[in-house]
Each structure stands twice: as structure tokens, then as C-alpha cells.
Backbone:
């Protein structure tokens, strides 16, 4: 019987090697992600089956050695050269013990490293690779189906022999055979999904398989740690370290029913597993599960389109044109995978960004400075400039020509709304990527043709409107079925590395501009004052000339009148003129009055000019008659 177990272990090893090699060639030839990931299980299963087969051979050698020892004891009796104590030092037994003591833990550590490395490497690889339709899926479907059938039949036979004969060493290889069968079946299902134009399912299946590999690695290291602290009982066979319970559970899920029955028996204190209800449930569990799966499958005939969404109905991957676009509400269709509905939020304003990548850690910053990066990634665009000369000269020889362009960091969020879901979905494979590429090209083309300072200041609104119009025109030409709602130029500034120097240059330019404006204001003020003073001088001269003319005319008229008065009364006229002249001449003069005559008084007259007149010096008003 042991010899048959060894043959089964050898068959398991050969089958895993053959199916693994064929599956590897098929997976890399068809470029299926799930198939390439599933190779990890077949490879690990081959290693486990090889170690398991080697351990079987060691136990077989030990068994034959013990049988030979017993035959020698029977033939020679008590005079045998060997005794029981010597039997413990037999080479086959010692080799098996050394194998279990040193090689099995070392192999378990190696198994953990392989599982952890494979899980990490596959997950990193799947994060970078883009899902693409595999090649020759029809042939791959047939071959993977054959692989699944072969692995299942041999694995099921090995698992039953291991359970019936208590061959614990045969169990790990049988579990990996069954798990490899299920993996091939899952790969077949993913390839079938690809046939129905769902290439991302292949990526999702590959990620799920990578997650199972990671869980297996965790279980392996946990079992290895627990083995160190496990109490050893003499005569009790320990569970193999490389025998994964997770793999066994995935390979033989019916073991859950047996475990549940044992738990119920222990909890209730009687054989719950022998009751009629449990027996009925055990017999009908497959039909119950099948009924649930059928109800779940029938439930795919009913779909709900949420408010703000629209759906497109496809039958066998082709659009059902007579149904048109599905509006929000309840709809009925054929079950999956015959009919499928693809939804999109057509009432929602969607956004993509050009020129920057948002950093969640900096999204809450209130102050946005040119000299500090405020996005995770910022892109620079070429922009024209009028201030930079096309060429410059140094000394007598001209220097290299400098293009009249600058670099400008531009952050452009673009908002759009889907107006024609059919055109958006079926006209192009990836309409969102095409729209983003068109917008990027138009923005790059536009900024090359505008001036740096104009687009940073007064031309921003104009640039936004022109870009919106141009991108909408390109989208309509490609029949994308979208409305461009907004092209926002929310952040336009020089690159962060030169922003500080740009601010310094701009500040110097502003100071220069301010000095020029101050000089122009002073010049305007001086010219205006000079013109006013000149006008004043002219008007004063004109007033003086006019006063002289009028005064001469008045004197001429006065002389005529005086001549008439003199002719009428010469003496009166002379005395009157004399008194008038005396009055005019003595108006602001100091006057001395001598009241008495014929006296001998000495009168002293102080003829000095006073610095400040007093009250007595105020002239009295004169009255005229």
C-alpha cells in the first residue's frame, strides 16, 4: 500500500510539472494576466509535491528498514546482534528525523519567501501593467479547460486516497492539484469574459490570485512560528509545516461542512450531524446553493438607473439600438452575460486637469505662492514673449540667437458634461483620454501664440473663452458627444525655480514704471504751472497797458474840463488846484501846528521817523464842503 502512495505522489509531481510547463507557455503566449499569476500556484505546488514525494521515500525506506529488523529478530531470537536501543540509530530513521528537523523548516522558510516575493512582485507588476485583450483566447479556453479537468481528476483521486488511508504526506500535493484545477477554471472564466469584451476582469482575477498568494505567505510564517511553541507529544504525528490549511480549504471546501458538523456535535452534546434535518441539508446543500445562484442570475434581469445617470444596453457585446438610451428608473433585460448595461453620470459635471496633479496634502492650503509648489506635479508650457529679443550682441560679435519664448506653469481644470452617451461610449475606445489629449494639444498650441504678460494679466478671460471654443470644436469634429462647460485658467505663474527672480525683475520693472510715471507727472505739473505763469504775465501786461491808456484818456478829458473851469473863474480855479495839491501832498505827512506867536519859547522839533506810530499819529478824517 505504501508503494502505491509513493506512485501517486510521483504522479502528482509529474502532472504538476507537465501542466505547469504547458500552462506557462500558454499564459505567456496569450498574455493573460490571470494565467501568468496562476503559474505561482502551479510552481509552488510542484515544489511542495517534490518535498512531499521525497519525504514519502524516506518514510518508505524507514518502514522497510524496520521490517528487515523485525525479520532479523524473529530469525535469530534473543541472540540478535541488534536490540531495541540500537534500532533507534538506524540510518533510514535517522535520515528521516534529520529531514523533518532541519530540511522541512528551512523549506518552509523558503516557501514563505517565495510566496511573499511572488505576491509583492505580482502586485507591483499588476499596478503598472495596463489590461489588454489576450491573444488566441479560443484555443486558450480549450487548453485551460483540459488542464482544469486533468488536475481535478488526479487531485480528487489523490485527496480521497490520502483521506481514506491517512496518508498525511500525500495531502499537500493533492491540495495544490485541486487548487491548480480551480485556478485553471478561473482563468478560463476570465478568458471567457475577455471574449465578451471585458478585458479588465482578467486584471481583477489576477489581483485576487495575488491576494491569495499573500494570504498563503502569512499563513506559512504563522504556522512556522506556532510550530516553535507547539507542545510535543510522543507518538503523535505533527502536521506538516508546508501543508497549508488555506490551500486545503480552497481545494476542498466540503471540509467546512465536516468541521461545522463536529463543532455542532461538540456544542450541543449530541450527534447533530446524525439528525434527519442535517442529513437532508447535507444532501440538498448543492441544490440549495444552485437555487440561490439561479435566483441571483435571474435577478440580473432587473436593473435600476439612478437619478443623474443614463445607461446603454448591450446584447452579446453589441448595442441594442432599438432600446436607445436608458433614462433613470426601472428597466428589464435578459440575464447576464447575454445583456449588460453600462451606466454613466451624464447629468454630472466632470473634471480633468491639465498641467498639474493634485496633492491631497496641499489641497487645504489657503495661501498660494509662486515660489512654493502647491501641486504634486506641475508642468511647464512654452509661451511667447515680446520683451525678449530674438538675438543679442556682446561687444563686436553677435551672440547666439535666443528664441522669443519663455516657460510658464499653467494649471487648467477643464469641466465637461456628456450630452450624447452613445457617441461618448462607442465612437472611440477611450473618449475621456482622447478628450484630454485634444485639450492638452490645443492648450500647448494656444500658449505658444500668446504673449507671456498678456495671458498672465488682462488676457486671461479672453484666453479661457478661446480655449473653450477651440476644444469644443475639436470635440465636435471627433463626435465625442460632450459639452465643454469651463476651461479655467486658475493658476498661471512662472516656474517655481525662477519665480523669485521673476518677481524681482517684475518689481524692478514696476519701480521703473513708477519712476517714469512720477517724472511724467512732474513734467506735466511744471509745464502747466509755466503756462499759467506765462498767461498771468500776459494778462497783467494787458491790464497795465489798458490802465495806462484809460488813465491817459481820463487825464485828457480832465484837462478839457479844467480848461473850461479856468476860463470861467481863473482865480478860484488856481486856489482850488493849489489847495488840492496841498491836500494830496500832505495826506501822509507829519504836521506841526504852532498855536501862539510873539513868544520867546524855544521850540525843539524831532524830525526823526518813528518806527511805530502811536494813537496820536493817526490822521483825522477831513471833511470837504
Residues:
Amino acid at each position: 500500500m505504501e508503494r502505491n502512495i509513493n506512485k501517486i505522489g510521483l504522479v502528482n509531481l509529474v502532472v504538476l510539472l507537465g501542466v505547469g510547463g504547458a500552462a506557462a507557455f500558454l499564459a505567456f503566449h496569450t498574455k493573460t494576466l490571470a494565467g501568468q499569476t496562476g503559474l505561482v500556484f502551479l510552481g509552488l505546488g510542484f515544489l511542495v509535491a517534490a518535498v512531499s514525494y521525497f519525504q514519502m521515500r524516506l518514510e518508505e525506506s524507514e518502514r522497510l528498514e524496520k521490517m528487515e529488523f523485525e525479520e532479523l529478530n524473529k530469525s535469530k531470537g534473543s541472540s540478535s546482534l541488534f536490540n531495541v536501543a540500537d534500532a533507534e540509530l538506524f540510518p533510514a530513521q535517522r535520515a528521516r528525523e534529520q529531514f523533518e528537523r532541519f530540511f522541512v523548516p528551512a523549506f518552509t522558510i523558503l516557501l514563505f519567501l517565495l510566496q511573499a516575493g511572488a505576491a509583492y512582485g505580482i502586485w507591483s507588476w499588476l499596478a503598472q501593467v495596463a489590461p489588454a485583450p489576450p491573444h488566441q483566447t479560443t484555443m486558450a479556453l480549450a487548453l485551460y479547460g483540459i488542464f482544469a479537468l486533468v488536475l481535478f481528476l488526479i487531485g480528487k483521486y489523490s485527496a480521497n486516497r490520502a483521506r481514506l488511508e491517512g496518508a498525511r504526506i500525500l495531502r499537500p500535493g493533492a491540495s495544490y492539484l485541486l487548487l491548480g484545477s480551480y485556478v485553471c477554471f478561473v482563468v478560463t472564466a476570465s478568458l471567457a469574459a475577455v471574449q465578451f469584451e471585458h478585458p479588465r476582469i482578467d486584471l481583477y482575477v489576477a489581483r485576487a490570485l495575488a491576494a491569495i498568494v499573500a494570504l498563503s505567505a502569512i499563513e506559512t510564517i504563522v504556522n512556522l512560528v506556532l510550530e516553535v511553541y507547539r507542545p510535543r507529544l510522543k507518538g503523535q504525528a505533527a502536521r506538516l509545516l508546508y501543508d497549508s490549511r488555506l490551500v486545503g480549504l480552497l481545494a476542498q471546501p466540503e471540509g467546512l461542512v465536516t468541521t461545522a458538523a463536529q463543532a455542532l456535535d461538540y456544542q450541543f452534546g449530541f450527534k447533530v450531524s446524525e439528525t434527519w434535518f442535517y442529513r437532508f441539508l447535507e444532501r440538498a446543500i448543492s441544490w440549495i446553493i444552485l437555487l440561490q445562484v439561479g435566483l441571483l442570475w435571474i435577478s440580473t434581469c432587473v436593473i435600476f438607473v439612478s437619478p443623474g445617470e443614463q445607461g446603454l444596453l448591450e446584447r452579446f457585446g453589441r448595442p441594442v439600438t432599438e432600446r436607445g438610451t436608458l433614462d433613470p428608473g426601472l428597466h428589464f433585460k435578459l440575464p447576464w452575460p447575454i445583456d449588460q448595461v453600462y451606466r454613466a453620470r451624464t447629468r454630472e459635471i466632470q473634471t480633468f486637469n491639465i498641467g498639474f496633479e493634485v496633492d491631497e496634502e496641499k489641497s487645504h492650503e489657503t495661501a498660494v505662492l509662486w515660489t512654493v509648489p502647491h501641486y504634486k506635479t506641475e508642468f511647464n508650457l512654452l509661451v511667447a514673449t515680446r520683451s525678449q529679443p530674438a538675438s543679442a550682441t556682446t561687444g563686436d560679435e553677435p551672440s547666439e540667437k535666443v528664441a522669443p519664448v519663455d516657460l510658464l506653469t499653467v494649471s487648467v481644470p477643464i469641466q465637461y458634461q456628456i450630452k450624447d452617451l452613445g457617441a461618448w461610449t462607442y465612437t472611440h475606445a477611450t473618449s475621456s483620454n482622447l478628450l484630454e489629449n485634444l485639450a492638452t494639444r490645443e492648450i500647448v498650441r494656444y500658449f505658444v501664440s500668446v504673449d507671456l504678460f498678456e495671458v498672465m494679466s488682462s488676457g486671461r478671460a479672453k484666453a479661457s473663452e478661446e480655449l473653450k471654443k477651440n476644444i469644443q470644436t475639436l470635440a465636435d469634429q471627433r463626435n465625442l458627444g460632450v459639452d465643454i462647460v469651463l476651461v479655467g485658467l486658475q493658476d498661471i505663474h512662472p516656474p517655481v525655480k525662477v519665480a523669485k527672480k521673476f518677481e524681482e525683475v517684475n518689481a524692478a520693472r514696476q519701480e521703473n514704471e513708477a519712476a517714469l510715471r512720477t517724472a511724467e507727472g512732474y513734467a506735466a505739473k511744471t509745464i502747466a504751472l509755466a503756462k499759467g505763469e506765462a498767461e498771468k504775465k500776459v494778462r497783467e501786461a494787458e491790464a497795465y497797458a489798458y490802465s495806462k491808456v484809460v488813465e491817459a484818456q481820463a487825464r485828457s478829458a480832465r484837462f478839457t474840463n479844467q480848461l473850461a473851469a479856468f476860463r470861467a473863474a481863473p482865480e478860484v480855479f488856481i486856489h482850488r488846484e493849489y489847495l488840492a495839491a496841498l491836500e494830496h501832498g500832505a495826506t501822509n505827512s507829519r504836521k506841526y501846528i504852532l498855536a501862539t506867536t510873539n513868544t520867546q519859547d524855544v521850540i525843539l522839533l524831532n524830525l526823526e521817523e518813528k518806527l511805530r506810530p502811536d494813537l496820536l499819529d493817526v490822521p483825522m478824517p477831513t471833511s470837504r464842503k
Q: What stands out?
A: The longest strand covers residues 405-418. DSSP finds 16 helices and 15 strands in the chain. The radius of gyration is 55 Å. The chain has a mean pLDDT of 78.
